[in-house]
Amino acid sequence: MAKLELRNLNKTYTPKVIPVKDVSLSVEDGEFLTLLGPSGCGKSTILRLIAGLEEPTRGRVTIGDVDVTNKRPGDRNIAMVFQSYALYPHLTVYENIASGLRLKKTPSAEIKERVAEASRVLGLDELMNRKPGQMSGGQRQRVALARALVRSPDVFLLDEPLSNLDALLREKVRAEIKQLFAAQKVPVVYVTHDQTEAMTLSTKVAVLNKGDVQQLDPPHRIYNNPANQFVAGFVGSPQMNLLTVPCQGNSAILGSFRIPLPEIPTTPPQIVLGIRPENVLIAQPEDRQTIRGRVYLVENLGMHNLISVRVEASQTEAVTIRALLPPDQQLSGEDVTLTLPPQFIHWFDVETGNAVFTKQPLTVGR
């Protein structure tokens, strides 16, 4: 077993192109860390630095307390699963799975034993004599996973392995990956821009933006306690409502809606109010604080309708609030009265974008 640790890892191409900015994090045995973020945020570069496919400008990579920063990829005892599968088209499934072991001159009997075990786990027994061109995308992805498994590595690295699969197959393989790596008891680092994969697979998620780690926490903390506006807006579908509203006294003002702010030494002139669409409710008679608007768009999402409501935030400005409602509520073109439960509201500083009034400490930073 081996702990993976990145210490002040940096990759600089030019003074203006810095895809990884002093990232520090660790992945324990049995932990599944997902690097989540938009294209260009540095997540694949971090994976390549761990694998040794790129050299860091500064910082260190250690595996099991051994500094591997300057070691070749083949000397790091890692296994990597690529987005493109990277299978040899002229080799059979068996030969593809065994290829890495043969390069390491593993005894033939041990190769057969390891390949048979990986094949059993991933359901490949009937495909062992086929070549990649004779298989579906999901089958080829399982072969790529099997080739990684047989190596018995210290660390698994997966670079968007499901992005080439259709939606139904992606869901199936995602469930297989979760069960598969839960049994491996070694660090796993998974790269994706798909938040569903990150939330369902991970024990920890690192949300990245422009080379910086914005938040490092378990999935439920990322979702329920976002560290800043970027995390709040990036994680969650539909996206969180983020509204800049004025403050008066100890309250934030949204039209006729006055939301008390937690006690602070100085109330800012403005603050960003965040609330997820699933937490915006149709007001009931007993609700004291309500806001009225007009529905101008209804999107049918199957289990819910996503409504967009135009609300008069002030005499000169209107804002849009989105809410998830049961599918039997058809409100297109109608006036509607909403309420925003205070316990589901997030607050962010206008200038820094950082969360304020958080009840629990957040794991934020590089």
From TrEMBL:
Keywords in alphabetical order: ATP-binding, Cell membrane, Membrane, Nucleotide-binding, Translocase, Transport
Lineage: Bacteria, Bacillati, Cyanobacteriota, Cyanophyceae, Coleofasciculales
Originating organism: Funiculus sociatus GB2-A5
Limits of the ABC transporter domain: 4-235
SUPFAM superfamilies reported for this sequence: MOP-like, P-loop containing nucleoside triphosphate hydrolases
Keyword Cell membrane: yes
CDD domains associated with the record: ABC_MalK_N
InterPro entries in alphabetical order: AAA+_ATPase, ABC_transporter-like_ATP-bd, ABC_transporter-like_CS, ABC_transpr_MalK-like, ABC_transpr_MalK/UgpC-like, Mo/tungstate-bd_C_term_dom, NA-bd_OB-fold, P-loop_NTPase
GO MF annotation terms: ATP binding
Stored Gene3D superfamilies: 2.40.50.100, Nucleic acid-binding proteins, P-loop containing nucleotide triphosphate hydrolases
PANTHER family: MALTODEXTRIN IMPORT ATP-BINDING PROTEIN MSMX (PTHR43875), TREHALOSE IMPORT ATP-BINDING PROTEIN SUGC (PTHR43875:SF15)
Plastid recorded as keyword: no
Protein name (record): ABC transporter ATP-binding protein
